[in-house]
Amino acid sequence: MKNRPFLLIAALFCGILSSLFAQQVREVPPRGPIKIQPAPRPLPGRGPIQVRPGGQAPQKASVNWAQQQLVFIGTLDTVLAGPVGRSFPPMFTHKLNFTVKEVIRGNLKPGDKIEASHVARQRVAPVFPLNASCIVGAEKSRGSYRVSAVEKVDPKNIASIRLSCVLPLGWTSQGGKVLSPWSGLKGKWPASQKEGATHFCAMTGRPALMVGSGASFSVEKVPPQVAIKWTNPDGDGEYKVTLSNPSKAPVTIPALRKMGNKILWEESLVVLCQGKPYPAPGASGILGVSSPVTLNPGQTVSGIVNPLALEGPQWPRGGYRITFQVCLGEMSSSQSFYYMSKHHDKIRGLLKAGKPIRSPDLGD
């Protein structure tokens, strides 16, 4: 009984401490879920590159020779390794020197010696068949050659490669069936109009037609109506395709069709993108009788194509480059295009809706 006052005081003191402690705990704000932040990537050019020198490259898809601008058989004389891009996988660069022995597609000549660049983004350094007979797929842009495929000649595959290169760019031969980029369209080529061709599209009956050696072919970017820094340095997707006759005699271009005085650019051009051929935007197939365009000496004709209207490619997100290969018959030009999604998605939306991408109020 004598200890009762002491016990009451102790109980009261403990209650006050418990109340204060609970209040402090309640006043601490909740922490919420723990967020894991990604570690910053090293700056370009910093840190070592893990590279496997030599060895076999990873298994790749077979080369689509039908989409190569230039195809030739030649001897690989020298290989000069260049800088290795600091990326993952690394980007290997080389200079390759060839002596041309046989031309399968393009305007090279036997005996020509060419130097070409080669770029491969893969885990291991590529190995080339030095001093061996090779079949080479390449393109020429701005006066320089770039090799996209180089393989040691295999006699078992040469016949099929030759057939692929007899066809216009974008055409394919599958199991003996020839297909054109217009195979998915409903329009059927007039059955009576053979144009002296050897091969025909199995789906549309369209003849495989070429440009020929007399005309020159070029493609150039069209400047945008409004240039935006860091956004559309390559424009808004428009390309000007030009054919000209530099000779002193008329030149007929079978691959470029017309009806009356109207040149059918949309029905004649093909665009290759991400390994797939597409008819030019707006194509529906040539239903009536058409005729080839003939250029008089010194004459030039031009048309506009905008690959941003294509349905099918995987368009980049953010800012990234995409390549378009604009083709007419056996001729083509590859164009690297900087695509900024926040800007060019809107351009594609206008094209899909059939609206102009240039405002008449602003002028050209």
How many DSSP H or I helices?
4
Based on CA atoms alone, the radius of gyration comes out at: 31 Å
Give the helix proportion (percent range): 10-25%
Architecture (CATH level 2) name of the domain at 210-352: Sandwich
Q: Mind describing the biggest β-sheet?
A: 5 strands, mixed, barrel
Secondary-structure element order, N to C: HEEEEEHEEEEEEHEEEEEEH
Show the helix and strand layout.
Layout: H1 4-27, E1 70-85, E2 91-105, E3 113-121, E4 133-141, E5 144-152, H2 155-166, E6 172-174, E7 177-179, E8 216-221, E9 239-244, E10 251-259, E11 262-263, H3 265-268, E12 270-273, E13 276-279, E14 291-295, E15 300-305, E16 319-328, E17 331-340, H4 341-352
Parallel strand pairs: 3-5
Antiparallel strand pairs: 1-2, 1-4, 2-3, 4-5, 6-7, 8-9, 9-15, 10-11, 10-14, 12-13, 12-16, 16-17
Architecture overview:
Helix content is 14%, strand content 35%. A five-stranded mixed beta barrel has the order 1-2-3-5-4. It has helices at 4-27, 155-166, 265-268, 341-352, and strands at 70-85, 91-105, 113-121, 133-141, 144-152, 172-174, 177-179, 216-221, 239-244, 251-259, 262-263, 270-273, 276-279, 291-295, 300-305, 319-328, 331-340. Residues 20-30 and 38-58 have low confidence and may be disordered. A hairpin with a 2-residue loop joins strand 6 and strand 7. With 364 residues, it is an alpha+beta fold. Among the domains are: 65-166, OB fold (Dihydrolipoamide Acetyltransferase, E2P); 210-352, Immunoglobulin-like.
